[in-house]
């Protein structure tokens, strides 16, 4: 697997490498074929300058490369959110809070990354720009045809997996950090939303949006979270055997393809062999969340409120697949929205009561491996029947990719995806998760799980 931030920082401090050397390696990776289309904008000169500043090596990020999803305000640059509609937006006057915290911690910003238009899909395609290809950070290029990188933080995932960035700043509204992490063989952590400020970020859902990072290891995820949340994670030396874990059967395990099913079963056995106590539970409340959100949920209602004026003027320029999901919010009344708020509160109380006795829950991050890009490519108007088939395949893939991750957002919980596949398999993610403000337990358990899975 590509060397992580923690290891690289220790090598810098030992004088065995330097931030300037590492920036050159990251730039070479960003310019490689593996990273094609992952970045929408690069600024190598500024990154080199930042990495060479005296004292950078003593900061938490030591002058190392970070990528920024094109959803976040970066001083002096327009924030396009993956859309041609905002391509001519005025440059941001200030860094958003997350970018400012990364800079203060010593990040060298390599560039802005590709994303699904306005962050509204878990697949990773965007008809305005070429789609980056999924990459396996553990074992290199994926066999067979090009596969989607997952979304909406698609370029962020590829930038980290290919070695172009140590941290990919992303956002997660229904899985947009954890999905690309799973499909690219890396780590993605969605914290409790309130812990990281979302100011200066183009919103999808003000209720569900979470700012977070994709990294190469769980320890790097902890470093990134501590910077972004401006808090210290309480570390625990407790072994896996000290934690009570559960595998919910309802919904999470349905429709798994053979690769995911095999990897997940093997992972549970490995964790049990390492001492983990894992119980199977039903957790029917998870299925209720899909029913509650059947009309579009917060993402549809809140995105429509933000986009309705832009849609009136530029609707024809939107990705049709994104526009159709945003426009579902037009049919939701104020009464519907209040009902949704109340339903979420009641559901969350039941859900938290059901899982409160466990330290974390384990699930496949997504139930399928990455679909091929060709199977879900945007319509091109050349063959209406083929376009219709791709739209259907896209809708099915998007639903499956988001299915396991989105309940954690609805719960305002926290979840981390870490790779659990082996050589010769397409990337598969293990999701360790719990409810709100259980972040430290999830991170500590993920550290232990990662170590157990790395053992021969």
Automatic annotation (TrEMBL):
SUPFAM superfamilies associated with the record: Amidase signature (AS) enzymes
Superkingdom of the organism of origin: Bacteria
Keyword Transferase belongs to the record: yes
Stretches assigned to the Amidase domain: 25-443
UniProt-recorded Gene Ontology molecular function terms: transferase activity
Pfam families in the cross-refs: Amidase
Keyword Isomerase: no
Keywords assigned: Transferase
PANTHER family named in the record: AMIDASE AMID-RELATED, TRANSAMIDASE
Name of this protein: Amidase/aspartyl-tRNA(Asn)/glutamyl-tRNA(Gln) amidotransferase subunit A
């Amino acid at each position: 697997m590509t060397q992580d931030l923690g290891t690289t920082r220790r090598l810098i401090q030992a004088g065995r490498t330097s931030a300037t050397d590492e920036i050159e390696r990251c730039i070479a990776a960003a310019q490689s074929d593996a990273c094609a289309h992952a970045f929408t904008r690069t600024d190598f000169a500024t990154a080199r300058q930042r990495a060479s500043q005296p004292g950078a090596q003593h900061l938490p990020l030591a002058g190392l490369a970070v990528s920024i999803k094109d959803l976040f305000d970066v001083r002096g640059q327009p924030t396009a959110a993956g859309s041609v509609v905002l391509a001519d937006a005025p440059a941001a006057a200030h860094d958003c809070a997350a970018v400012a915290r990364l800079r203060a911690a010593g990040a060298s910003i390599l560039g802005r990354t590709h994303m699904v238009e306005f962050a509204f899909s878990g697949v990773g395609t965007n008809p305005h720009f070429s789609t980056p290809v999924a990459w396996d950070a553990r074992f290199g290029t994926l066999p067979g045809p090009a596969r989607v990188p997952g979304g909406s933080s698609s370029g962020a995932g590829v930038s980290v997996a290919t070695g172009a960035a140590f941290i990919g700043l992303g956002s997660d509204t229904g899985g947009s950090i954890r999905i690309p992490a799973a499909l690219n063989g890396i780590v993605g952590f969605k914290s409790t939303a309130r812990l990281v400020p979302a100011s200066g970020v183009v919103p999808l859902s003000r209720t569900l949006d979470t700012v977070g990072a994709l990294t190469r290891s769980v320890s790097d995820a902890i470093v990134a979270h501590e910077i972004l949340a401006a808090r210290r994670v309480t570390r625990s030396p407790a072994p896996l055997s000290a934690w009570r874990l559960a595998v919910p059967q309802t919904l999470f395990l349905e429709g798994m393809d053979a690769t995911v099913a095999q990897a997940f079963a093997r992972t549970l056995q490995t964790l049990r062999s390492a001492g983990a106590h894992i119980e199977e539970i039903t957790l029917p409340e998870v299925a209720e969340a899909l029913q509650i959100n059947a009309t579009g949920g917060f993402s549809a209602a809140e995105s429509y409120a933000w986009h309705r004026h832009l849609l009136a003027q530029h609707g024809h320029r939107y990705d049709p697949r994104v526009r159709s999901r945003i426009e579902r919010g037009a049919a939701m009344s104020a009464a519907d929205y209040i009902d949704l708020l109340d339903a979420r509160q009641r559901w969350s109380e039941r859900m938290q009561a059901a899982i409160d006795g466990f330290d974390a829950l384990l699930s496949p991050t997504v139930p399928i491996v990455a679909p091929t890009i060709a199977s879900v490519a945007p319509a091109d108007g050349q063959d209406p029947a083929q376009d219709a088939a791709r739209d259907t395949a896209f809708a099915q893939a998007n639903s499956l990719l988001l299915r396991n991750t989105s309940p954690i957002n609805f719960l305002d919980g926290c979840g981390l995806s870490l790779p659990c596949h082996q050589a010769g398999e397409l990337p598969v993610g293990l999701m360790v998760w719990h409810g709100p403000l259980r972040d430290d337990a999830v991170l500590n358990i993920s550290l232990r799980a990662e170590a157990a899975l790395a053992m021969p």
